[in-house]
DNA sequence: GCGCATTACTAATACGCATTAGTGATCCGG
DNA sequence: CCGGATCACTAATGCGTATTAGTAATGCGC
């Protein structure tokens, strides 16, 4: 009646001749002369009071080191435990050929913070290039292998994200994202930063300030406008629609005439928002140059963010910098908090004011 | 004798009240009126010829859709005895603050190739910052949670690498590394590339060519010299020690006098190797400029590699480019081959010749 | 010196899926 | 019309770990 239990499974390659396969807890147990369960107890972060003698613990740990044992992440997860892996998912390639568009600056902080907290990172690439889970409707499912996952970029499909969140899987989105109920995110505090820039200009004596923004409903844009207007209000300056120039194509619509018009109306400072393309700043910068404005003598310019690479050589714009590494780190902190069930961490990261050289005292009127 | 099999496991949260946890294959099977195995067969990419009727397949797929079934990656990978994870280990931080020193260009290719082959990447950092596995003497042990691991940079401790290799753990080193028996690596084919550059110069009529190299025993250096000499030989030009100028500090030792001496001896072309610092090229470039050489009219210059960033603006040097993304991709291919037990892939990656503008026809003699 | 704790383990089992060895049907050739 | 082949599917089992119920072995109080 004895069934042959140890028969080799045909589908499995029995490790290339002579080589030992990766060690399992069972092998550690054998070497230490204990049971597999004991190995698990020694290694695990005991929740209940299972007591292990010092002697046994030492034997097990020695065996672990001797064999170079490392727990299998899939098995840990299946058994409802942690595996100390945090996922990083980007819908587009994490390392695009064009460095400019990469998430590199964020990853700097992500890697550091993750390492500091004892997590390793798993890169899930969900791009059209194929990806491990094909590009099917469940491209995001793979991330469940990790303890939690960070999402980069605004392209993460809402439906699948919602599903992960609904299942209680720890998820953090890098970049504000309110429309998805229950989705945790971290983002830059554009409101305060924009407000600070306006305060700076006001302190320099500017009394009329105009914001140039693109036609965009992203939170990043509306937040800046919000902060801008708040800054005006705090300084007791005129706000309202007249203070905001909104254009879908600023490079064409922000004409020299329009700029002269503003100057004639007494506007002495201009603020542009930062966008992917940097068009608002480019347009503002170009028009000012065209009109022959000597900046910051005749008028001041400020940029709510960083300049596009092609304008990086120009005099440093007054404005603020988005601390990308810190954002990445904050995202990891929040994810770690979710994973371990702690209280959620702070979602907003402060931007740093950049004095720059495009803003100066308001010119004397007339 | 009946054991209570379905008793709830205390450690598990029984899905937030009301909401059912996500479906399993078993539930799909129940709904479709088939067995769990059948569901697995329908969903899996059958390797063996298990045949399923169209009728059944449809029922299963309908049930899958109806329940919103998504496979659990932990279970899949555990059962398949394959995590589909490739490790990427760098001794220094994978994402240093200074992008210049990063492995970014390699990672571009690594990510693409890994994604195309269905692998996800696990990032391991061996720096002192810790990572999940502390920095102990077994810092490398953690990479075993992946199916195999790629090593970047020459700092990977030999002893531990040897251990991994000896244990049969699939390892690939990015960059040639012969001293470690059995270590698989991929590297650029500097020999052929250097040879090609010499051939190009010879075809332009140059009859005496000198190589400027630093004092370094790295394979990357010796390979270039090897290819350089081979190129001379093929072209029937004078080689030997006189054709190679080796210096630990070329910027000081490659003086104007020395350069003039070579020119007087009839040397019309100079080749520098690329190094971390780019000193050989910088020295050569500087001396030529100092002596007042009109390049490429009076003499030709070539660089065996890419110029350092600070000299990137100068006229593009004739030479070759190291296809870093391709190198990364080749490394992944080799690692994938090792993991799946296939035949090893090609370790050498061809460099691409870069015409540049610093080499031209040899000047008429006298 | 007997019951009851406590200590230090081990046996058994579940997690969700993939794989394979069956197992009835049905078909086919001679 | 019978032995074998093919088809379509299911039962059973294993992957590696975490958890818990159980079990000897000892200690302790009265």
Commentary on this structure:
The structure is a homodimer of 366-residue chains. Chain A has helices at 25-32, 36-43, 54-67, 73-78, 104-116, 158-166, 190-203, 219-234, 250-253, 256-264, 279-291, 324-339, and strands at 85-90, 120-125, 148-152, 171-174, 184-188, 209-214, 244-247, 269-273, 300-304, 318-321, 348-349, 352-354. Chain A is α/β, with parallel strands linked by helices. Chain A has 3 domains: 25-70, 434 Repressor (Amino-terminal Domain), CATH 1.10.260; 85-188 and 326-349, Response regulator (Rossmann fold, 3-Layer(aba) Sandwich), CATH 3.40.50.2300; 190-321, Rossmann fold (3-Layer(aba) Sandwich), CATH 3.40.50.2300. Mean pLDDT of chain A is 87; it is low at 1-19 and 128-134. At the A-B interface, helix 4, helix 5 and strand 2 of A face helix 4, helix 5 and strand 2 of B. Chain B binds a DNA duplex (30 and 30 nucleotides) through helix 2 and helix 4.
Task: Note the topology.
The structure is a homodimer of 366-residue chains.
Chain A lengths: L24 H8 L3 H8 L10 H14 L5 H6 L6 E6 L13 H13 L3 E6 L22 E5 L5 H9 L4 E4 L9 E5 L1 H14 L5 E6 L4 H16 L9 E4 L2 H4 L2 H9 L4 E5 L5 H13 L8 E5 L13 E4 L2 H16 L8 E2 L2 E3 L12
Parallel strand pairs in A: 1-2, 1-3, 3-4, 4-5, 5-11, 6-7, 6-8, 8-9, 9-10
Antiparallel strand pairs in A: 10-12
Helix pairs in contact in A: 1-2, 1-3, 5-12, 7-8
Chain B binds a DNA duplex (30 and 30 nucleotides) through helix 2 and helix 4.
